[in-house]
Amino acid sequence: MAAPSNGDxxxxxxxxxxxxxxxxxxxxxxxxxxxxxxKNVEKGVxxxxxxxxxxxxxxxxxERPAARLYFKPGNRESKPVSARIAKTSDVVLKVTLPKRTxxxxxxxxxxxxxxxxxxxxxxxxxxxxxxxxxPPASAKxxxxxxxxxxxxxxxEVEAVGHVNETHRFRTLPDFVFSTKNNAFMQKLRDTTLxxxxxxxxxxxxxxxxxxxxxxxxxxxxQWNYIPTPFNY
Length: 232
Description:
The chain is α+β, with helices and mostly antiparallel strands. The protein has helices spanning 41-46, 51-57, 122-129, 141-150, 183-191, 197-200; strands at 28-33, 68-69, 81-82, 84-96, 156-168.
């Protein structure tokens, strides 16, 4: 936990301070309010354009791009949604909790977990030494809240940085026209949309004459022209 600043009175008003002042590390963070529930971090990064696109969001430049969300990464027919950058004053907290492995309580009760008397138990040795353990990344909110209540004197909280801007997705996504059974679009996807010269040369239009039945409809570049939802 960050150490409070010296002095019990304000240097300007000379009034007593009723709360401690804590210094926050100058490490900048960029917030992204992802509309999905992220269970796989790798797929979550891919939905934002990959590591290269995410790293550009943290660059210390005046013209930083806004985050873009891809609902179907790799599908060129699914257009991304651009975020809006909002100025924020948030703090990133690092909470370190001990594991509950080796702790037990009476069956059917809601009492706090008690440390095992077994000396070989890693949790018991953790409580004796006071060394906190980080819970698994997949821990649910209920797990973390219960661990905070059961380890009020052991868990640690540290302010690791501040968030000056947050990327928020508030616009409507565009519709996606399925071209799974569209022969023309499949041919276009396998040649032109690969952006490879040797494959692009293989794309040709059907130049046969006469009346033909056209079953392949090319979808428009955009379906929805209203990015902001109406409050009906």
